Amino acid sequence: MAGVTGRRLAVVSGGGSGIGRAIAARLVADGHRVVVLGRRAAVLERAAQEIGGPVTPLPGDLTDPAAVEHLAARIAELGPVDVLVNNAGATVTPPEDDSLAALAGAWRRDLDANLLTAVLLTTALQPHLARPGGRLVVISSAAAQRGGSGPHSAGSYAAAKAALHGWAFGLARQLGPDGVTVNVLAPGYVQDTEIFGEGWSEDFHARKVADTLVGRAGTPEDVAEAVAYLASPAAGYLTGQVIGLNGGAVLGR
Questions:
Q1: Does 133 score more than 70 pLDDT?
Q2: pLDDT one-digit tens code per residue, 40-68
Q3: Nearest by Cα to 113 from 36, 166, 61
Q4: Whole-angstrom Cα Rg for the chain
Q5: The listed CATH number (3.30.1330.200, 3.40.50.720, 1.20.120.30, 3.40.109.10) that belongs to domain 9-245
Q6: CA distances from 193 to 28, 35, 44, 79 (A)
Q7: Domain residue spans in the chain?
Q8: Strands of the sheet with 33-38, listed across from one edge
Q9: Peptide bond before residue 132 is cis, with ω within 30 degrees of 0
Q10: Model confidence, pTM
C-alpha cells in the first residue's frame, strides 16, 4: 500500500463489516488508499481481500490507549491522513443485573465502545492530518437525536452517540483554521449490519421502515455515499454539522 503513489490516505475504524466495510470500498473506488481498523483480524483481512485494491487491515482495540498509539504510529508511516472516518461502535450492553454497579459497568462499556474509540483514535492521528484539506467524519446515530428505541432503548447508547456531537463541534472550531473539516453523520435504521443483532425481526424491520418517509430501510451503501461526499475535496465549506441520514424518520433540526 505504501508504494501506491498519488492516492489520498483514508482511515476507517470498524472497517471490517457493515457500514464501515461499505465506506472503505467506496473510498477505494474513489481512488483512496484505505486503512481499515477493528478488533477482529480475520474479519479485516477478509474485507481487505474482498474489496481489493490498496487496503491495509490493522487490527487493534481502539479502547486501549497503548493499542491506539501503536496503530497511529503504523498509520503515520503511510503518509498524512487525508480522511479519518470514526465508525467503530458496538451495540448496547445491558446490565447484568439490577444493581447500580452493573448499570455503571454497562454504561462504561458503551461509552468506551461508542465514544472513547473515536476520541482516542482522532487524538492520536490529529498531528498526522493533512493540512489543509483533511476530512474528519464521525458516524453517530439517529438515537442521539431522538433517544433509543426498540431493542436498543438503553440510554447509554444514545448518550454516547450524542456526546460525539459536542466533541465534534469543538474539533471543528479547533481545526477549521487549518483547513480541516469535521462533520457528524447520523444514520437511522440501516439493514444488513451487525448493530441490531438478536433484536432484529420481521416485525422490527417493518416498524422501522414504516417510520421513514421514503418507505425503505437504509443500506450501508447509502451511508458510504454520504461519507464519500463529506470526505471529498468538494466538501471544503461544510463543517461543524450533524447530517441526518434516516429516510425522514427524524426531521432536520
A1: yes
A2: 999 999 999 999 999 999 999 999 999 99
A3: 61
A4: 17
A5: 3.40.50.720
A6: 20, 20, 15, 31
A7: 9-245
A8: 55-59, 33-38, 9-13, 83-86, 135-139, 181-187, 242-245
A9: yes
A10: 0.92
Q: For cell 479502547, what's the residue?
A: 63
In the chain, how many H helices and how many E strands?
A: 9, 7
Dist CA 28 CA 144 (whole Å): 29
Average pLDDT over residues 140-144: 94
Strand segments (E) across the chain: 9-13, 33-38, 55-59, 83-86, 135-139, 181-187, 242-245
Would you say how long the chain is, in residues?
Answer: 253
Element (H, E) at 28: helix 18-29
Active-site amino acid positions: 157
Q: Which tens digits make up the pLDDT trace of 66-117?
A: 999 999 999 999 999 999 999 999 877 788 899 999 999 999 999 999 999 9
Q: What single-letter DSSP state applies at residue 232?
A: S
Amino acid identity of residue 91, one-letter, is: T
Mean pLDDT of the chain: 92
Residue 113 DSSP symbol: I
For the chain, percent of residues with pLDDT exceeding 70: 92
Cell of 16: 471490517
At position 145, the amino acid (one-letter code) is: Q
Residue type, 45: E
Q: What sign for the dihedral angle of Cα 123, 129, 131, 133?
A: negative
Confidence class of residue 149 from pLDDT cuts 50, 70 and 90?
low
Question: Can you say whether the dihedral through the CA atoms of 236, 79, 227, 13 is positive or negative?
Answer: negative
CA distance 86 to 247: 22
